[in-house]
Amino acid sequence: MISCDLAPNEEWDDILASIKILCQPWRWYGKNEILAVKKNILEYLKTSDAEIHFFLTGRFALYHLLKSLNLKKGNEIIVPAFTCEAVILPILALGLKPVFVDIEKNTFSIDYNKLKSFISNKTSCLLIQHTFGFRPSEQEKIIQLALNYNLAVIEDLSHGFFNYQIPLLIKEKNKVKNFNYYLLLSFGRSKSLSSVCGGAIVGFNKKVNEKLKKQLKEVYRITYSQLIKLLIYKPIVFFAKKTYNIFGLGKLIHYLYRNSFFFPLEITQKEKNGQLDQSLNYQYPNALAYLLLNQIKKIKKTNQKRLKVVHFYQKEFFFQKTNDILIRFPYLVKNPKKLIEIMKKNDIYLGRWYEQVVAPKDFPLNIVGYKYGACRSAEKICKLIVNLPTNIDLADAQKIVRILKENPD
């Protein structure tokens, strides 16, 4: 079975790590692995001028960052019109207003040429999304524009930070320590590095870092029962994936698990209805950092594997050349639903990031104030896009391409 969503990163060593930490509850709420993860990420980003603040989810990492910026209700946050509810719900929960800007077609991130007209005297913050892991083509120009308007900048690296480098313009201006500049990371179950749940803010502003530390102390730690749910996720899903087509065993396991009390929801019903669910507002436990550290240790090998597949897809589909390490490869087709069904018959399960300008599909866009026709490029892409997996062997990628070429429409 090949899948974008179901345990896309997990290998046997990840399962053993889950079982090992599950049997060592005295380590669940420590700090050793959290400190090790922080050190590894800062080394990877090649900076010592930042601090990292972990939360149980990426959406609450963003929530607490926005809260620390002391923005006034009604202030505007500029976001790309090709995103998910996890970005928008924290904005709404704080009484702020998301302003959607259309995307460029080659990186699926904010279109610099359209950005300036959306900046007003109410604009306080700009979120730059590195969609699928693509670096926005005009990244430095966008940041420079934000500097000119004294806006806080959040670079959303939820889809991966492997190619990321702190922009030279920030270092050159010697504003790293003072500029309102932040990175948003996510370690959810389908992300490039996964600990089932997890999110972090990499902060470069001393005052805001202090506020984030204070807020983090006020956030409760996750309970034992909730943590157990997260720790058993990888072994169960991995086994289900490996046995998915063995007399339907894995398919049955996955169905029963998804409908059981033990399954940790990625999006709650409250969030599907357009409200941030405070039941996910917890500290990031050391037990999950242990899982994350295991994936960080093999990051070089995983990145090489992904990049090899990305280059193969690029060559086969005449896609623009990139050395970005993509979490998923975007593929546009006239009839996504038909293609997805064809792939399912071949034991391949494609992704759909994103089916509408604020995913998931059927999320109430009226709540976020989006009006159809406002961002035409994003709307068009949402109708055509499917995601191809990248953390797979080249032989599996060749199989995917063969089927796609046999079914061009």
Set out the fold topology.
Blueprint: E1 2-3, H1 12-22, H2 32-45, E2 51-55, H3 58-68, E3 76-80, E4 83-84, H4 85-93, E5 97-101, H5 112-115, E6 123-129, H6 139-148, E7 152-156, H7 168-172, E8 181-186, E9 199-203, H8 206-218, H9 224-231, H10 233-242, H11 249-258, H12 269-272, H13 286-297, H14 299-317, E10 328-332, H15 336-345, E11 348-349, E12 358-359, H16 365-368, H17 376-384, E13 385-389, H18 394-406
Biggest sheet character: 7 strands, mixed
Secondary structure category: alpha/beta
Distance between the termini: 23 Å
Helix content: 40-55%
Strand order of the largest sheet: 2-9-8-7-6-3-5
Low-confidence stretches: none
Average of per-residue pLDDT values: 93
Name the shape in a single word. Answer: globular
Number of strands: 13
Short description:
By secondary structure, the protein is α/β, with parallel strands linked by helices.
Structure in words:
By secondary structure, the chain is α/β, with parallel strands linked by helices. 43% of the residues lie in helices and 14% in strands. The protein has 18 helices and 13 strands. Strand 6 (123-129), helix 6 and strand 7 form a beta-alpha-beta unit. It is globular.
